[in-house]
Amino acid sequence: MSDMRTPLNRVRGLGSAKEGTDHFWRQRLTAIANVPLVIFFIGFVIANNGASYEEIRATIANPIVTALLAFALLSVLYHMKLGMQVIVEDYIHGEGTKFVLLIGNIFFTLVLGVVSLFALVKIALGG
Amino acid sequence: MPVAACSACDVIAWKIVFAALTHCKNRIRKPQPQGASSGSDVALATATPPRRYRIGEAMSKSTTVQARPLSPHLQVYRLIPTMLMSIVHRITGGALYFGMVLFVAWLAAAAGSKETFDMVNGIYGSWFGLLVLFGFTWAMIHHLIGGLRHLVWDTGRGLEKETATKMAKANIAASIVLTVLVWIVGYVVRGGF
Lengths: 127, 193
Fold this sequence. Notes:
The complex is a heterodimer.
Chain A: H1 7-11, H2 22-47, H3 53-61, H4 63-91, H5 95-124
Helix pairs in contact in A: 2-4, 4-5
Chain B: H1 2-29, H2 42-47, H3 57-61, H4 63-67, H5 81-111, H6 114-125, H7 127-154, H8 161-189
Helix pairs in contact in B: 5-6, 5-7, 5-8, 7-8
């Protein structure tokens, strides 16, 4: 049966998500924060590649390193969440799969955030 | 007075026309509930609240959307630097997304026992582990430079065809050079060479 509804009728209740440029803005905000933080992060990863247990714990326990890593992880993980959301929205068209993946995306980044921040705090406090 | 009578006639005539138009409009635009016979009374239709949709229902229901011709996708276009770097930006983003698991696992291991950390460090220190780490750092540097490109574009600059192409080529070149450089510096500083 052909759809007799007008375009106006069709979009009622399905229109704007009232978010505007919020996603774009947050992606840019975290991108700007990521510039210095990721430069530090890359340096940190390469410099500590192969470091021993004692060495790496001493390095991370340095308050500046702890703070920079925490900021880097928060900004990067949030940026990751935003980016993967776009990828899912672009390529996954089945509504069920899309919802599962969008929820999974949030849980994934959240779990990584909680685990990494807990590990940071534990090392920083000498636990 | 004839004039006044005519005015009154006009008003009445317009009211009739308006009522007729409203009636027709309602009949045409009235959403037909499934299974209902056509021509049910207008009052009932206008009293019905707008129908609510389940998620995705409108998309799949709309046959007109499905019947539309689709614009051709990637395969019909010649590969050009800006396009390739756009794709690589997204791929590196996706790879970094999963690559972060490796970093978080390493960090969690460092927060755990020495045995756990040594095990993880052993895997990461193998040639394959180092290859993955090298790829991870390249992807991050490439995505970082790609992101800077986007931030430049956001200001409205660098969108000209030639400039954008130059930026795309610079992106891949700089990411490879910088990655190699950073690794060499990393090893030199730690006395690895």
